[in-house]
Design goal:
Structural class: alpha+beta
Largest sheet: 8 strands, antiparallel
Shape: globular
Helix content: 10-25%
Strand content: 25-35%
Amino acid sequence: MPFHDLRSFIKRVEEIGELKTVRGAHWNLEVGCIAELMAERRGPALLFDEIVDYPAGYRIFVNAFTTVRRTALLFDLPLSYKGLDIVKALRERHRVYKPVPPKEVSDGPIFENKHYGDEVNLFEFPAPKWREFDGGRYLGTGCVCILRDPEEGWVNIGTYRVMIHDEKTAGLYISPGHDGAIIMQKYHSQRRSCPIAVSLGQDPHLYYASMTPVAWGISEYDYAGWLKNEPIEVVRGPITQLPIPATSEIVLEGEVPPPDVELREEGPFGEWTGYYGGERIPRPVIKVKA
């Protein structure tokens, strides 16, 4: 059975018996600790609800692909496949890559709730402090950051970390050399702010594509569409004009000012490798406008 967004994927995970709902955890360390323990044990995917300080329905989904069965589900492969079976199947699939560009639509679920300007409050969402020595609360971990190259026009998508500074400002860290960092530098070298959209809770095909190294100039939207065998539906962001996923749960739109305009201290962050990534130093910020 195909899935078209995060909610339908979660439903499929539940149907195969690999979802656990956790109620009443605290955003400060408890969510992160429980998620880490289950990941280490190759346990179920977790759906946190009724998080302390937040209404029911403000949920966090973690550990999407920490078992082979859930990974097979993503790629529409038999659930009986072992790890090596999946590797062989993907290798064979990659022999014939044909990009499937996204499809722009006029509307989507992402526009059901909209906040602009003074209405923006990043603390509206239960961003966890995942680990004890993290530099703050991280809203963007399993996220998709969307940027457009100002010279070549193609759209890059990458998973970069996003920390909350205040109600309307987020910290952004992109490792040097990544496509997103190069694109951002192009804007800043022209003394321009870099438009950016950050998707939180999107089609897992798009999330997988955002973490996959593809060649410069190839949009991860095209790769995700090929992986899914149908175009990713996008809508035009009203602030940035960037293509944003029509079925995402949350999208932040804004811009990253040049470093001589504003930097704030960000990091460290307990990364998936088991180590804290980076020291606490001044890094770029996202001025969130919607």
